[in-house]
Amino acid sequence: MESVRGQSDLAQPGATRPTLASRGFTLVEVIVTVLVTLLLTGLLVAGIRVAATTARDQASQVTVRSIGVGVSQFEQQFGFLPPLVDDGAALNGPGPRTASGTPFVEFPVDRSGTTPAITAYSGRRGDVYLRGYHPDLGTRYQFITLNSSPAIGTAPGADSRYSKTSLPFYLIGALGADVDGVDGPGYNKPRASGTFELVGTGGAFEPFFNAGQGDSATLLSEYFSATEDDESGRAGGLNPTSVTRDDYAIVDRNGNAYRYYRWESGNPFAGRGEPEIASVIDQNIPSVLLDVDEAYQAELDFDAGNPISVDPTNGRTELRSARWAIVGAGADGLFGTEDQTTLIEAFGAKSDANILELRQRAREDNIVEVGG
Predict the structure, then answer these.
(1) What pLDDT, in 10s, does the model give residues 111-153?
(2) How far apart are CA 181 and CA 103, in angstroms?
């Protein structure tokens, strides 16, 4: 039989069809493969970064929660909350001094007596301060400050009812035996005034918090923050490099101190007997825990003598009964209470930026634990 004419050679017996392996990749296929590989690698790296950030955030949240548990346990043990140490108390006797010999105003321990003692807010003066009023001027601290804070002692500026040193003093026992009765962690029985009973207490108390677990909580014995000094108005023109500092603090992985906020509700100057609570303003909640815009509007209502038209707590009922809070600055290192210049520089904003928006932005990643 004759063969069919014109039949392709590929149809002949023994002929083979070209395969992908035999002809190789085209340039387009190579480029697509590389792009897909790069895309998958980018997604993997981004996922790892997100997971790492989430893990760090969770570690900080656990730390803040653990510090809060320590505060509650302290109150259960002694019947009062950890005293709010005056981080800006002056030294009247021997102690750290500037290069010129002037007592350094940031050291929180008063060594003027025979036995060193903690300078804490207590008594009538402390009660006024914890309720949001300047203890010397008798005027209320502002919820929100638009500009830099006035100097302490000249006008009621930013609300500074917090202490970084209270936590290492009363939850860890970071001071020496000449102050709290014990060298190293632990201490003798504390008093509500902030001092310690050095004798006759029946033994030392163990720490309520361990700052040695992980890098989200580290105890520092020489802590300084220029930003904090600018915020509170306590800098006084001192050069930090020429000062011997002994400020204790528990810091996060970014080196920012955790803050212990402490307050009481009620207007101490209204009515007789118990302090009066006429509005949310009289809850005296520190502004760092409030919605910025709502708090500012409440400030305007209060100053104008009008009824408070907003809820600065945004419905967070736990704030209305709370008396303390532990606050961490979060990843951006800002609390939202800093002075205007600091916030503008931190966010690269223009000089005429809306300071309320910057404050709210800074507070978005704050880590907070509150308790009553």
Answers:
(1) 444 444 455 665 666 777 788 777 666 777 766 655 544 333 3
(2) 25
Nearest to 251 by CA among 168, 311, 357: 168
89 CB neighbour count, 10 Å cutoff: 18
Beta strands in 206-292 (DSSP E): 218-220, 249-251, 259-262
E strands within the chain? 109-110, 117-118, 162-163, 218-220, 249-251, 259-262, 324-328, 367-371
Give the DSSP letter string of 58-85: HHHHHHHHHHHHHHHHHHHHHSSPPP-B
Beta strands in 127-216 (DSSP E): 162-163
Q: For the purposes of burial, counting CB atoms within 10 Å of the CB of 329, is it exposed (0-12), middle (13-18) or buried (19 or more)? A: buried
Is residue 110 within 8 A of residue 118, CB to CB? The reply is yes
- Report pLDDT digits (tens) over 322-353: 999 999 999 899 998 888 888 899 999 998 88
Instruction: Show the tokens assigned to 323.
Output: 């008396």
What is the secondary structure of 4-40 as a DSSP string? PTT--GGGSTT-----HHHH---HHHHHHHHHHHHHH
